[in-house]
Every structure is written in C-alpha cells, then in structure tokens.
Amino acid sequence: MLRASGLVRRFGGLVAVNEVSLNVADREIVGLIGPNGAGKTSLFNILSGQLGPDSGSVSFAGQDITGASASVCARAGIGRTFQIVKPLVSLTVHENVTVGALLNYPLATAREKAAEIIDRVGMRSLLDQQAGSLTLESRKRLELARALSIEPKMLLLDEILAGLNASEINESIHLIRSFAHQDGLAVIMIEHNLHAVMSLADKVVVLDYGRKIAEGKPEVVVRDPAVVAAYLGSDD
Ligand SMILES: Nc1ncnc2c1ncn2[C@@H]1O[C@H](COP(=O)(O)OP(=O)(O)OP(=O)(O)O)[C@@H](O)[C@H]1O
Ligand SMILES: [Mg+2]
C-alpha cells in the first residue's frame, strides 16, 4: 500500500526527518512512536502532502506521490487527522464532514455519506451542532470523521487518544481496529499511549531525532535497549 524510502526533511539546520523508510501493507496497523520532537508529525506531513521532502520517495497504491500536494494525496486515498484539531468552527458537524465527502460525491450523496460516517464514530446526536462548540473528545471524533470522509485507503492518526479518558480510549481502540479489520484500511497511528499501541499495532516504528531507531513487533520493540534509552533520555 505505502512505500516510503529514504525520506529527509530539514528545517534550517535541524533534520526533522532523517533517512526514514517505511512500508505499510493493506489492513496493517502501524504504531509510530518516539519522544517529543522526534519527527513523527513531520513524517505524516510528508506522507499527506502538507510538506515536501528534501529527498526520498513515497509511493502509495502504486502511484508515485513524492512531493504531491495535500489534495493529490487525499485523492490518492490518504486520510489524516491533525494533532492540533482544526474543524471549520462555524460549520456544523454534518457540514464539516460533508466537505470531505464532496471529494467523491455530489452534494446530496455527500451529505448522506457524511451522516453515515458521523454515526460510525458515535456522533449522531451532535450532527447539527456547531463544531466550535464541541468538547475536546467530540472534536477528536470529528477530526476522525473528517479523515474518513474522503473514503481513504490509509488513515494517518496523529495522537487522537490524547486527552481522552479510559473509556473513551477503549471505544476509540475498538473503532480503530474496525477500520483495519472490517474496512481493510491501512493505519499509521502516532500515539504516546503505549497501552493502545501495544493492543492495536501489528508493527511499531520508533523515531528519535528524526531517525528510525527500531521497527518490529510491539512487544519486541518496547524492550529494545535503543528505544528504552530514547524514552529515558539517556545521552548514550
Ligand atoms: N514547520 C516547521 N518549522 C521549523 N521547525 C519545525 C517545523 N515543524 C517541525 N519542526 C521541528 O521539527 C522537529 C520535529 O517536529 P515534529 O512535530 O515532527 O515532532 P513530533 O515527533 O511530532 O513531536 P510531538 O510528539 O511533540 O508531537 C521538532 O524539533 C520541531 O520543532
Ligand atoms: Mg507531533
């Protein structure tokens, strides 16, 4: 599904993403972890067209999308959420999600598709509420609904569990699992909640200072000495 190879992105003297390669298969759930500032969101920004790479390549569903715009990446089937949620605050929940569905459908159908997605993420009762008046939990769900609204083949989830309570996290875990196992989506989730990563991810990738320092099965990766050192802030 996704093949990213040798991705590099610099900001001035800082190498935010440093020679990162990553493959993701259909239905695979990949946990992307690493300390603050490791380059996780920057990597998402490259994969979803918010940021161009300085070098490296990205192919998705057989299409070369290296350096492609956000709208090209969305059309190719990459849906994402933003760490800092950004709903269109003056629009309703239904309208926010309809905007994404307009990528594939005329207005009347887009509204129907949007309502189905809103149901799926458990927001039916909030359909006509203004996005600006939602709680954090609901804004996170809306962000997920917006990512789904383009009918993606791959979902990039940037810390969608942050700030949620234990039962909300459990609901979200079931929902994320269903996207991969029922809908066949590939999922990459950036997540600081290791319990969620351990219970969901088929594979975990660890970034530290822009570099990939480990990749593999969750239970193996979390015991990797390099990963433990990165999390404990050892200076090697
Ligand atoms: N647009 C930008 N301009 C300059 N520096 C940036 C920009 N975006 C990110 N950075 C820097 O790149 C590095 C990686 O940032 P990034 O947001 O990708 O990290 P992250 O792993 O998502 O961190 P967090 O866990 O805190 O969300 C950081 O040092 C950050 O300050
Ligand atoms: Mg981030």
UniProtKB/TrEMBL annotation:
Domain ABC transporter residues, every copy: 2-234
GO molecular function, one term: L-valine transmembrane transporter activity
InterPro entries for this protein: AAA+_ATPase (IPR003593), ABC_AA/LPS_Transport (IPR051120), ABC_transporter-like_ATP-bd (IPR003439), BCA_ABC_TP_C (IPR032823), P-loop_NTPase (IPR027417)
Keywords: ATP-binding, Nucleotide-binding, Transport
Pfam families, alphabetized: ABC_tran, BCA_ABC_TP_C
Protein's recorded name: ABC transporter
PANTHER family tied to this protein: AMINO ACID ABC TRANSPORTER ATP-BINDING PROTEIN, CONSERVED COMPONENT OF ABC TRANSPORTER FOR NATURAL AMINO ACIDS-RELATED
Coiled coil: none
Gene Ontology cellular-component terms listed: plasma membrane
GO biological process: D-alanine transmembrane transport; L-alanine transport; L-isoleucine import across plasma membrane; L-valine import across plasma membrane
Source organism of this protein record: Bradyrhizobium japonicum
Role of this protein: Involved in beta-(1-->2)glucan export. Transmembrane domains (TMD) form a pore in the inner membrane and the ATP-binding domain (NBD) is responsible for energy generation.
Domain of life: Bacteria
